[in-house]
Amino acid sequence: MKKIALVGCTGNIGKQTVRIVRENPERFCFSALVAGRNEEELDALKKEFSPRVALCAAKGVNREELQSVFADCDVALIAAGGFAGLSYTLAAIRAGKTVALANKESLVCGGELVMKEARKKGVEIVPVDSEHSALFQALSFRRDMPFEKLVLTASGGPFFRLSEEELKNVTAKDALAHPTWNMGAKITIDSATLLNKGYEVIEAKWLYDADFSQIEAVVHPESIVHSIVCFQDGAAIAQLAYPDMRLPIQLALTYPDRLPCLNQLDFSQMGALHFYPFPQEKFPCFSLAIQAGKAGGVAPTALNGAGEAAVAAFLAGRMSFTQIAETIQGVLDRIPNREADCFETLRETDFKARKIAEKLIYG
Fold first, then answer.
1. In what order do the strands lie in the sheet with 215-219?
2. Taking a C-beta distance cutoff of 8 angstroms, is the pair 270, 224 a contact?
3. Shortest CA distance to 289 belongs to which of 271, 275, 270, 310?
4. How far apart are CA 209 and CA 144, in angstroms?
5. In 67, 99, 289, 318, which residue has its Cα 20 to 30 A from 172's Cα atom?
6. 53 beta partners
């Protein structure tokens, strides 16, 4: 029986993880559950699964409580959203636990710190993102396999075929209508701006010790091919599946074993699969993410903090879709880069980035 500490149990990834555990009671149980704000839903999960620890982050979590979350688990699945997830990831690593990582910000903001701690503790980080799970599978679950290039696929979001002029008039409702994936509001908007794919490039750098020149993004509207690994001899290995997060979530909990999960692909009925160049000029958030990733230091943390503030304002109807990128650029221009030497430095940068973004947005 594998004991899971699930952080972010009431979010989109958390709910799908709960479903997997519910369907496999002989294999999994919850040792700890952490919710963001939904205390009512947390109470229902407590009654159903009887975890040893159950916490609501909105009430505040002290150091002792944080340590207790990971004291008695086999794997920590970090599905908390935003910068807040980084502290849980670091706590799980320092407790010596395998981390199933669904929180992008842990590696976007704290990649150097997280990987350093993981090496120090001998902790394995297993990706839950569909793209990085796909790379992990194509590399035969090995991080030491040499490769020539990593290719991340993107659906293109709902606005791939719109002109730059048309993008100025899209609404939050339009942006939340993702063509293939069912996700939370923040990540859905990040997918519409393609900022999310920039985050994933940064993640790939840290997870697979890759140079940015070795990572490419392409648009694949069908979302059947989730990533591709290219090798020196010209071979390319791709991972294919229907777009459903249950597969990478479950695999992160069971690998190298595989359990039944999704329907098999019906290749006779699939039709053509398409791949297109990445439209960087039309979606500047992606380029801003790559620039910040290459700059290193606290720049990716500033990028993320500005992005979170801008997306919140867009969802509230306080800014246009195209102003998200403008806000991020404005914040990056105003925060001097420096070494990301510790969590406190990152937290301070995150706070500053949000404050500057709010001033740019609200005046």
1. 215-219, 149-154, 225-230, 236-240
2. yes
3. 310
4. 9
5. 289
6. 32
Half-sphere exposure of 332 (CA within 13 A, CB side): 24
> How would you classify the pairing of strands 215-219 and 149-154?
parallel
Quick: pLDDT tens for 196-218. 999 999 999 999 999 999 999 99
SS3 of the chain:
CEEEEEECCCCHHHHHHHHHHHHCCCCEEEEEEEECCCHHHHHHHHHHHCCCEEEEHHHCCCHHHHHHHCCCCCEEEECCCCCCHHHHHHHHHHCCCEEEECCCHHHHHHHHHHHHHHHHHCCCEEECCHHHHHHHHHCCCCCCCCCCEEEEEECCCCCCCCCHHHHCCCCHHHHCCCCCCCCCHHHHHHHHHCHHHHHHHHHHHHHCCCCHHHEEEEECCCCCEEEEEECCCCCEEEEECCCCCHHHHHHHHHCCCCCCCCCCCCHHHHCCCCCECCCCCCCHHHHHHHHHHHHCCCHHHHHHHHHHHHHHHHHCCCCCCCHHHHHHHHHHHHCCCCCCCCHHHHHHHHHHHHHHHHHHHHC
Residues 265-279: tens digit of each pLDDT: 999 998 999 999 999
Cβ count within 10 A of residue 19:
13
Is residue 357 within 8 Å of residue 309, measured between CB atoms? yes
Report yes or no: 325 and 284 within 8 Å, Cβ to Cβ.
Answer: yes
Task: Quote the CA–CA distance of 165 and 154 in Å, as a whole number.
Answer: 22
Tokens encoding 360: 């740019």
Name residue, tokens 């730059």: 164
Q: Report the C-alpha gap between 79 and 17 in whole angstroms.
A: 9
- The structure tokens listed for 101 are 């990582």
Which pLDDT does position 181 carry in this prediction?
67
* Residue of 354, 347, 363, 280 lying closest to 310 (CA atoms): 354
Give the whole-angstrom CA distance, residue 301 versus residue 83. Answer: 8
Is residue 300 within 8 Å of residue 111, measured between CB atoms?
yes
